[in-house]
Amino acid sequence: MRHVKNPPNPFSKYSAEYIGEPPPTKLEIFEETAPKKMITKAFAFDWEGGWRYTVNCYRGCIHGCTYCFARRYHEFLGYGAGTDFETKIVVKPNAPVILREELKKTRQKMPHVDFSFATDPYLPLEASYELTRKCLEVCADFNVPVGVITKSPLVTRDIDVLQRLDNVSVFFSLPFLTKEKSNPFEPYTPVPEARFRAMETIANAGIPVGIGIAPVIPGYNESDIPKLLERAKNSGATRAFMSMLHLDSDSIEQYFVAKMHERLSPTAVTKIVNAMKREGGGELRHRTFKERSTGRTEQW
Questions:
Q1: How far is residue 89's CA from residue 60's CA, in Å, rounded to a whole number?
Q2: Contact, 207 vs 170, CB < 8 A?
Q3: Tell me: the pLDDT tens digits for 23-46?
Q4: CATH architecture of 28-294
Q5: CA 200, 151, 289, 282: dihedral to nearest 10 degrees?
Q6: What's the pTM value of the predicted model, to 2 decimals?
């Protein structure tokens, strides 16, 4: 059972601290019926060139990855970056209609659209809402190049739509080789083995597929990188990227460190923190794209 745990929201004047054990969390679904637009121009710290266009049919993410940079976006809604991000999920039921109207008004062809930037496009909710699928169909109608990055095998459901796209790639986020290794940091995601099987299914369908080894957590999963790349290649991957852990705000850093102390031994936590500080020049965070891509020490 998860209990409510949120660092103070920097955009709020007030914060609450429970006396005794916090209450258990519960999943809440909110519908945002009239978003102004679906295509967002976002600055991606871990992407060469910086700017990219994204479509997010959901806000928040049930997967609960403790390191996720998108946690801070929930604070803009008045929620917390901790358990609120995992349990207060915003759904945009009109996303396909709004996306279609937006593309109709676009004078120039979209260069590339990513699904997604601030959430996983294949949350469990997608199985019933089918918003990502319908938005992919819209992109196919307008010949929009698409990139998908996900942790979910549910993407295999949409192979027929992905095959309609002239320019498409699917990346599986796979920073850990085993369930035991992934559980402390992404406890509610599909197990790595299921993601590798889905990768193979996508590749066998003739769709370009890759692996995203992100984040690399210093002192924890660097040694897995060669095995992850080998396993991905054997599963049909033809491309890969990696990025070092990026704790994007004070609240994310607080939540990440707190969860490490809950789920890992003191020895393991000390090893990770010391390694992160070595790579971060004495800090837990890496400030630039180059630092997160190449690190600071000879090891990188």
A1: 5
A2: yes
A3: 566 889 999 988 889 999 876 555
A4: Alpha-Beta Barrel (3.20)
A5: -120
A6: 0.88
